[in-house]
Amino acid sequence: MDGCTQMCRVFLILFNFLFALVGFGLVALGMWLRFGAETRGFFDIDMKTTQFNIGVMVLVVTGVLMLLVAIIGDCGACNNSKAALGVFSGLLTVLIIIEITAGVMAFMWSDRVSDELVNFYATIYAQYVNTQSSAQAVTLEFFNNAFDCCGVGGPIEVIVRNTCPKGSFLEQLTYSSCPGAIKDVFNSKAQLVLGGFLGTAGIMTLALVCSCVLQRHVSVSHASPPAYVLLTSPPSAARMI
């Protein structure tokens, strides 16, 4: 095995290890969102449960597929299995296409996604003012800290100020509204999101190339067995070989 092939093999093993970790994280996140006590009680409140279930299903299915691809890829790289590497290459090609498509769709639909998040935040905000649920407080605090904002515009209710980013009383009064902050972030960071998707697809493409290199090495090694000498061959024939 030459140096290039050996590097491809090591890269594939490391790539599949990280790929499996990400896949496991997606499955765990999807299962937590679906069956966690806090999220179960939270998402049952005036939410579009069909869309939520579809989102959870996408997380779990994507995570399981990534785990499957990583396991097959590691088996192929460690055992020099041409069949496993072939299946890995096919599945990884599908994931690359999905990754690029998701990045383009996220870029093109950034306005729609931001509108959905704004409506989501406004709904949670209004419900928290009435119910003061701890799960809703966690969600508001997450959004407020992620986008460095607080409230939906106008005076902020006293009970909501506990979920605002930490700061002085005057700082809390000058926070931008979250609907405006969410739209600003999506308008300014849409290119970065697309770049992240394309960069990930590029790394996956590199893993696909390494898989093809390993497949070629396995095919060549199987097609060209080492020379051998029959035990019944005369010494002259052995010398000629």
UniProtKB/TrEMBL annotation:
Transmembrane segments: 12-32, 52-72, 84-109, 192-214
Keywords, ordered alphabetically: Disulfide bond, Glycoprotein, Membrane, Transmembrane, Transmembrane helix
Superkingdom of source: Eukaryota
Pfam families from the UniProt entry: Tetraspanin
Organism: Cyprinus carpio carpio
Location of this chain's protein in the cell: Endomembrane system; Membrane
One cellular-component annotation, GO: plasma membrane
UniProt name for this protein: Tetraspanin
Membrane protein topology class: Multi-pass membrane protein
Subunit structure: Interacts with SLC19A2. Interacts with NTRK1/TRKA.
Listed SUPFAM superfamilies: Tetraspanin
Family membership: Belongs to the tetraspanin (TM4SF) family.
Disulphide bonds in the chain: 150-164
Function as written in the Swiss-Prot or TrEMBL entry: Structural component of specialized membrane microdomains known as tetraspanin-enriched microdomains (TERMs), which act as platforms for receptor clustering and signaling. Participates thereby in diverse biological functions such as cell signal transduction, adhesion, migration and protein trafficking. Regulates neuronal differentiation in response to NGF by facilitating NGF-mediated activation of NTRK1/TRKA receptor tyrosine kinase and subsequent downstream signaling pathways. Plays a role in the inhibition of TNFalpha-induced apoptosis.
